[in-house]
Amino acid sequence: MEVLVVGAGSMGRWLGQVFVADVGPSLPATARDECTVTYYDRSNAAATQAAKATGGHTVTSVTQEYDVVAIAVPISAAPTAIASHAGNATCAVVDVTGTMKKPVEALRSNASAVERCSLHPLFAPPNEPGNVPVVTDKDGPVTTFIQETLEARGNNVFETTPEEHDSAMKTVQASAHAAIMAYSLAGESVPDRFQTAVSKELSALVEQVGGNEPSVYGEIQAAFEGAEDVAAAANKLAVASESEFEQLYDKI
Predict the structure, then answer these.
(1) Cα 46 from chain centroid (whole Å)
(2) In the chain, domain spans
(3) Which of 80, 90, 108, 217 is most buried, judging by how many CB atoms fall within 10 Å of its CB?
(4) What's the pLDDT score for residue 26?
(5) 98: alpha, beta or left? (left if phi > 0; alpha if psi -120 to 50)
(6) Residue 156, SS3 per DSSP
(7) What is d(CA 72, CA 86) in angstroms, rounded to the nearest whole number?
(8) Which residue has the higher pLDDT, 35 or 130?
(9) Using one digit for the tens of pLDDT, what is the confidence trace for 209-242?
C-alpha cells in the first residue's frame, strides 16, 4: 500500500507512523509489509525529516497516484490541499487538519469515488494515546484499518458529525486555550512557595500550551470563536457587583 502524506509537520509525521505501525489486524499482512509512506511538504527539509522518522520517502511535487492520500496541513489550508491532491488517491483520502465541516465538504466534492474520513487526534503526538473523533464519510478497508490501528495504540476512537465536532472545539480548544493564555498574560511571576493548588495546576497548563508552535494555536483561534466568549465572561466577572458575582459563581 502506497501512502502520500501531504504536510510533514508533527501531525503528518505521526500519521505516517500510524500507517507503518506494527499493530492493527484489518489489512492483509502483505499489504502492511509493503506499506510505504511518502511525504510532500512545501518545506523539503520537513519532508526529509519526516521520511527519516518513518523510513519513508519524499517528493517535491505530486504527479503520480497513491493508494491513500492523507492531508495533514494547517486548518486554513485544508480545503485547498484536499482539492489539489484528493485526485491522486485510488483507494482513500484521509484528513487530520483540525476542523471537520469544511474538510468533509471538500472530501465529498473531490474524492466522491473513494473511501474518505476526517480524523482529529485531540492531543499532540507525544501525548498519545487520547481521544480521536472521526467522521467516516465513506468507509472501507483503509478507513477501518486506520481506526483499528489507532485503537490498538490505546486511543479512544469514536464517530461524530462535522457539526458536533466543530461545536465542541469552540469550547475545548479555542475557549480553553484563550483562558489559559489570558491567565498567563494577565498574571505575574510568583515564587513557588505562594502557589495554591489551583494556580499550580494553571501554571502546568500554561507550560503545556506554551511549549508548542504558536501558529498551531493561531489557526485554532482563527477557526473557532471561543476566545470572544472567554473575554466577555472575564469582563462580566471584572465589573460584577457582589450579588452579580454570586450569580455568576453559581453557574459554574
Answers:
(1) 18
(2) 2-160, 163-250
(3) 217
(4) 53
(5) left
(6) strand
(7) 13
(8) 130
(9) 988 889 999 999 999 999 999 999 999 999 999 9
Q: Which residues pair with 38 in a beta bridge?
A: 4, 57
- pLDDT at residue 25, rounded to an integer: 52
DSSP state of 243: H
CA-to-CA distance for 171 and 45, rounded, in angstroms?
35
Where residue 35 falls (left for φ over 0; alpha for ψ -120 to 50; beta otherwise) is beta
Q: Which of 142, 100, 106, 93 is CA-nearest to residue 120?
A: 100
For 37, residues 6+ apart whose C-beta sits below 8 A from its C-beta are 3, 5, 16, 19, 20, 51, 54, 55, 56, 57
Q: What is the pLDDT of residue 129?
A: 96
CATH homologous superfamily of 2-160 = NAD(P)-binding Rossmann-like Domain (3.40.50.720)
For residue 131, which of 105, 115, 153 has the smallest C-alpha distance? 153
Task: Encode pLDDT of 38-85 as tens digits.
Answer: 999 999 999 999 999 888 999 999 999 999 999 999 999 999 999 999
The reported pLDDT for the residue numbered 187 is: 86
pLDDT of 40: 98
Alpha carbon distances (Å) from 243 to 42, 240, 247: 56, 8, 6
Model pTM above 0.85: yes
